[in-house]
Sequence to fold (148 residues):
Amino acid sequence: MKIISRVMTLLVLVLFVGCAGQTGGGSTSSSTVGKALAIVKPATLSNVSSPLQVCMATNGYTVEPAKKGVNPGKGHHHLIIDTDIPADLSKPVAKDDTHIHMGDGSTCKTINLAKGQHTITALFAQGNHVPYNPPVTDSVTVSVVHVN
Fold:
């Protein structure tokens, strides 16, 4: 009986350690469990000041600079402000005031927003700025109450 107990304990330990190391190259928190992409800062429906920092975490995907090209399971973030994700996911994400590229491989970006309610959508894309299909995305809604 002692042998079975020890084997079971060892099996549980091996499973725990094995699962704990599978983050896909990005950081995780309780808000990212089961999600490929999560905006971890700011919290949704929060009152914020502008400029504000937006941070993302990935699970199952690795964040890398766009200059590293198209690599399976890897890419970088885009922030889409107050608009929908692109309808055509076979084309690169636009680059304008409402589509912010984070091709440097960063996971946080400071953005300026006017007072009022805004929807911030994170969209993960390959090195060529073409989103994954189906899209890897997450959104938060914030209320900017103070602009610095």
DSSP finds one helix and nine strands in the chain. The chain has a mean pLDDT of 83. The beta strands are 37-41, 46-50, 52-58, 62-63, 74-81, 99-102, 108-111, 116-125, 131-147.
